Amino acid sequence: MAFEPSPLEVVETHFVHVAPTHLTLHGGQVHPWLQDRTYSLYELREVLMSEDTPYEVRDGVWRHTIRAARRSQDWMVGALGLCMPALRSIARRACRGLTPGGVDAVESAILAEAVRQVRTVNTDYARLVWYLIRPVHRTALSARKHEKDAPFPIGEPGREEIPDPGVQGSPDVLLVAAMQVGVLSRAEAILIARTRLENLPLTRVAQELGVSYKACAKRRERAEARLVAAVHAGEITIADALLRQECLLGCEPGRLSLVLNVRTHPKSMSHRPFPLAS
Questions:
Q1: Less crowded by CB within 10 Å, the N or C end of the chain?
Q2: In a domain, 268, yes or no
């Protein structure tokens, strides 16, 4: 399998590429403490990381960068690259023990929140970067919790397994059962299967669906919450998928094939009431 860089790595690569020529500031126009010459944002990142750099200088660099980032996509990459050391530190803690798919989801959430903060943070604040990074840290922890609580794939390190012995070891058949009884729509089951069982990055699936990352993540979150609630309430069993055995014929068990080939029915196969998929 070909190596795919993580979301943070993609941004860092772009930042390193464009910063020396396209992302530059004149030190004298930012703060008198800086030399009266042109700095690249890559060089200024090292300056900002130095303990000897006054906070007023750091705030000055950040104000210039944020104002430019609100007008230019390249400068938005510059703003993300400027705070990349902090973003990486947050990601290391938030992604510990997660699968590659989980790491991708958490890093994507980190970047999305960082972009939002660059667009909305009050630039009049002193020690500006703290106000920029703090919400990102909270978002990362929330994304980590969601990934740790996700029930798929069962038996994967860092995942919480579904305690019901009737569904353990068969996450693909569980998705089929959820479709059969109306807990999940076909589209929701495919979304979960592709990103949880096939470990495809959520960013890639969102692009294929033509929706934003946040919209796709929210769609999956609602579907998984509905699924987990139904499983813990005992409202879904593997038997629900097997009541119509023809839905499994010709399908190789495991991963996405079972979900893609299943033929759903308009009514529930169980006597129990289920919430309808939205």
A1: N
A2: no
